[in-house]
Amino acid sequence: MLKIGIVFDRVKWIQRPFDKRYSYSYRILSKVARQHGIEVYISDLKNYRARKFAKCWFCEKSWKILRNRYIDMVFDKMSTSGRNVLKRMRVRMMRELPIVNHPELNEISEDKYLSYTIFREYFPKTYLLSTSGIRKAPAGLYVMKPRHGSRGEFIRIMEKEKLQPKKDFIFQEFIDTSGGIKDVINKVHDLRLVSINGKIIKAYLRVQKKGIINNMDTGEFEIHIEKSKVPESAVKIFRIVDRKLSKYDFRFYTIDFLVDKDQKPWICELNTHLGLGIAGKKTKEIYFNMYREILLAMKRYYLKLGSGKN
Asked: Are residues 118 and 185 in the same domain?
């Protein structure tokens, strides 16, 4: 049986690994895994040793803590902080075990300015939030956000004249999405495509309950749509991006699009750390299917490597 170790920055060690919603979601993921000959172990960075967890969570019918469990591959869910210690740990893990995603792919998605420089043609104009960056930018409305991270934290929308230099922040041309997407939605949104190895496995709109900054942690809700409803212009950009990233044999990531009033899609950001928490009872089956796609793709990747290191 394939043993996948999911590594987080930190987990709880009392009663369950996460809050109620996420613990339930990972219990379902563990159930799906067992149906396909996979065991899932969950731990944090400080409990990772060479090819094993000193301490980890395992769920069959309920959560329990196990010790000294060897794993066959790593699913990296460590936070997107840009810290050097995480970069070093990811490189170390990659030497010892197959790891998904590749540390370089994580770096591309975690560093929003790096993403922009690689795919500049498809992003809104983006600048470093420095004195020179502010000077270069024309007057207008911008979105200020951390250069690293993917939780919708510290995001502000403001005019250029109000911007002040701030270390490790960027500012991005504001895209007005209030025109919606033709035949799909008629309000402010962003469009997220979830993909594995070049295949779009899920598409949904993120709509804010209040305001215009979308993120599950800031009060958004998901509207799942059929993949056939995704604008072809967005699919075309996805294919171009994925072709550029295809040197990484395993690719699990999302692209977030903003569709402007002229129906032109712009990449907002890439994300290799998609939250896997089930977003309500109505989406349970959708997430169930996504878990199966992710787990089977990892199993195929492991078998392709012949149980060796990547």
From this structure: yes
CATH number of 11's domain: 3.40.50.20
**112, 185, 174, 175: which is closest to 146 by C-alpha?**
112
For 148, the domain range is 108-271
d(Cα 77, Cα 10) in Å, to the nearest integer? Answer: 10
Largest separation between any pair of C-alpha atoms in the chain: 59
Tokens at 33, concatenated = 């895994």
129: its two tokens: 């939030």
Residues 93 and 123 in one domain: no
- Tell me the sheet residues that pair with 100: 75
CA distance from start to end of the chain: 19
pLDDT reported for residue 210: 59
Instruction: Give the three-state DSSP class for 50.
Output: coil
Residue 146 has pLDDT above 90, yes or no: yes
Contacts of 145 (CB under 8 A, 6+ apart): 112, 154, 155, 156, 169, 170, 171, 172
Q: pTM for this one?
A: 0.91
Does some domain include residue 307?
A: no
SS3 113: helix
What's the pLDDT tens digit per position in 153-175?
789 999 999 999 999 999 999 99
Q: How many CA atoms lie within 13 A of 211 on its CB side?
A: 11
Own/partner long-range contacts of 84-92 (Cβ < 8 Å, ≥24 apart): 86/9, 86/45, 89/45, 89/48
Short-list 288, 299, 297, 284, CA closest to 30: 288
pLDDT value, residue 308: 47
